[in-house]
Amino acid sequence: MSIIRDTLLLQKRELERNLKEKYVERKVKFHINDDMIRIIIGPRRAGKSFFAIHALNKISESHFGYVNFDDEKLVEVKDYDDIINTINSVYNNPGSILFDEIQNLEKWELFVNRLQRQGYRLIITGSNSKLLSAELATHLTGRHLQITIFPFSFKEFLDVENKELTEGEIKEKLHSYITYGGYPEPTVKKINIKDYLSTLLDSTIYKDIIKRHKIRNPQAIEDLVFYLLSNISNEFSYNTLSKVTKCKSVHTIEKYLGYLEEAFIFFRVKAFSFKAKEQITRNKK
User: Fold this and answer.
1) Contact (CB, 8 A) for 35 and 116
2) Are 91 and 84 in contact (CB under 8 A)?
3) Domain range holding 100?
4) What is the number of structural domains in the chain?
5) Are 25 and 137 contained in the same domain?
6) For 101-116, what is each residue's pLDDT tens digit?
């Protein structure tokens, strides 16, 4: 219990610091005036947690607890009641609880389901779309609402400046946005975007794919990511990808692509056709 308490106290301090940092309002509707569980999904570092804590903090009379499960000390806890008891102690019996990166917790969907029945208003975030949706469909049918948070839209990207921009400045911002995207942290804090994106990609591949799915040949995943990044918007076939990654099975390639989509790294796009069969059989991008 002491380990859990110490962890949550440190997370609470981080939460209080985050609430004081600059925040760009996201164009997403959010409220918790019913007992529906709010599910916030999206890529790692897209601003899911920041959005949630500021939205909760903004709601009048909102008193919420916070737990970030991107911490091995919490993931190793066996008795989940210890977590709830510590939350009630640290946050003085909150009516609402924000669970961050909850997909790291084993059988989290059963835990959440029980708390919802006990009357807690729950907001949970996760970086793995399929994991969340598949398990929620089984255990929380009809009792949850899903919100997807992506990196900044171009409008939000411009809002960071908090001033009226000239046409030339907007064009310059557009070029930067198209080149590097709109991840909130490097945009707001003006940190090195190339190093940030490289580290983020490596972390996502390891945590959300290799570690979670117990990939025995991580080099194949890395080769696949490198090839796809070098051929954005180009058609591909599973046979070609199989040769590039030296994977003998086309089925394995399909499975790896599914993992990459679940982690919001890539999105497959079907070829346009009025015939469903052609959409399914033709190469994708």
Assistant:
1) yes
2) no
3) 2-148
4) 2
5) yes
6) 888 888 888 898 899 8
